[in-house]
Specification:
alpha/beta, disordered N terminus, Rossmann fold, globular, 269 residues, 8 helices, 8 strands, 36% helix, eight-stranded mixed sheet
Length: 269
């Protein structure tokens, strides 16, 4: 099944036509590579698996891994494109509890999902419920400090809210006592590609990403820009001369394009 590109969901073949898009692809791949050290021999839930490429990548390390998503077309694509004996996919209802028993997983991955979640308290409560004592949540979400002006709403039309690291820590703290906050960045020349993209976009979209703008207007105008940008896209003018070694996750990243939180559930929970 061919998955329709939206500009938000990662479809690997759609992200190799320009340095900017290829860098976004690398951010996703480096995230899953980072996760690989946590999933060895574990029962893993990829909460928001999208097209399934990352879930499949980790299946070679995990005891078992289940990818879930609210989009049936994404799950259908994943089921047809990425398979392994220890890998399963399920479509879930965003307004219903996860269809798993308590303590079903040792690791839960939430990569580029939290910014889409309206009821974050319920979302984290479900993660807490399905995590076994001592289990780990890996949560990755855009860092608004890099992407947005202090008062600005998201310029990504699919994002409900973007967060600062201290906000993510505060949301995790009631359920996870052991929290390590990291960032994602890269070599200066490579990171500059993403910083320039974010800077251009946040100023271009500023009139309708102000807090006073009704959300329906914000989304409509962002849809309009997305359609016209896509129509105007041209072949890359510069070769892509960087790769995964140019992107890193660490606790001393500044500026950081993504927040990376490693949160462990208490063993006596």
């Amino acid at each position: 099944m061919k998955l329709e590109p939206t500009g938000e969901r990662m479809i690997v073949d759609e992200y190799r036509d320009s340095p900017e898009r290829y860098l976004i692809y690398l951010f996703h791949m480096v995230t899953y590579r980072f996760a690989s050290e946590f999933v060895e021999g574990k029962r893993v839930l990829d909460y928001g698996c999208g097209s399934g490429y990352g879930t499949h990548l980790l299946s070679s390390r995990a005891q078992s891994i289940t990818g879930v998503d609210v989009a049936p077309e994404a799950v259908a694509h994943a089921q047809s494109a990425y398979t392994a004996p220890n890998l399963a996919y399920r479509t879930i209802d965003p307004d219903a509890p996860l269809p798993f028993a308590d303590a079903s997983f040792d690791v839960v991955l939430s990569f580029q999902v939290f910014e889409h979640v309206r009821d974050t308290a319920r979302y984290l409560a479900e993660i807490d419920r399905v995590l076994a004592p001592g289990g780990v949540l890996l949560l990755v979400t855009p860092d608004r400090a890099t992407r947005l002006l202090p008062f600005q709403r998201p310029w990504n039309r699919f994002h409900l809210r973007e967060y600062r690291p201290d906000e993510i820590r505060a949301l995790l703290a009631p359920r996870f006592g052991d929290i390590r906050m990291l960032g994602m960045g890269g070599t200066p020349d490579v990171l500059a590609i993403e910083i320039d993209r974010c800077t251009r976009t946040k100023w271009l979209t500023l009139p309708f990403t102000l807090p006073v703008m009704p959300d329906a207007w914000r989304v409509a105008m962002l849809d309009f820009i997305h359609r016209n940008r896509k129509t105007a896209e041209a072949a890359p003018t510069k070769p892509i001369a960087f790769g995964e070694p140019d992107v890193r996750i660490a606790d001393d990243i500044s500026p950081s394009v993504n927040i990376v939180a490693v949160a462990r559930k208490a063993r006596n929970a």
